[in-house]
Amino acid sequence: MIVVAITGASGVIYGVRLLEILKELGEETALVITPPAKIILEYELGITEDDLKQYSTVYYSSDDLTASINSGSFRYSSMVIVPSTMKTISAIANGYASNAITRAADVVLKERRKLVIVPRETPIRSIHLENMLKISNEGGIILPAMPAFYHKPENIDEMVNFIVGKILDMLEIDNHLFRRWHDENP
Asked: How far apart, in whole angstroms, are the C-alpha atoms of residue 134 and residue 40?
């Protein structure tokens, strides 16, 4: 099982696309969405959390600290926070497990499972970098929403697929969402 958390940063399209692809691939997922993310989903994509529940195996409320994903004894392989606010990153970096997302991330790090965080903020302050470094030093993967352009994307979907493909790469899930670099590329 892969935990997918969507927080209230711009770029919720990345989380939605990841859920769609994971469902297509037959992967089990647990979904958690923060209240601010619900607002951003409606604003940026015109969808609701109920629209997203169909793509997940199980759904947890972000304020449910009794959710099974918050226990080290509950087995799941990895967690992706996409997009991640700097508030969420700060909480994880500093061990402040105040909701189901930050607690599950705390569990993932302490259990040495895979944590992929997709920050969506620019520019970045020094404290943001320090918090991301703390998480990286504990084994978390920081994967900023920075699409490449060597594959010459023709639309937003191709740019989104590049980032989602990189997330899947970090989870060691084979995918063909974007054209990979080859010697014949310009």
From this structure: 27
Count of CB atoms situated within 10 Å of the CB of 61: 15
Output the six-digit token pair for 132: 């991301």
State the pTM of this model. Answer: 0.96
CA atoms within 13 A on the CB side of 125: 7
Contact 80, 171 (CB under 8 A): yes
**Helix 126-137 with 86-93: angle, nearest 10 deg:** 50
Each residue's pLDDT, cut to its tens digit, for the chain (186 residues) gives 999 999 999 999 999 999 999 999 999 999 999 999 999 999 999 999 999 999 999 999 999 999 999 999 999 999 999 999 999 999 999 999 999 999 999 999 999 999 999 999 999 999 999 999 999 999 999 999 999 998 899 999 999 999 999 999 999 999 999 988 876 655
What are the chain's domains?
2-170 (3.40.50.1950)
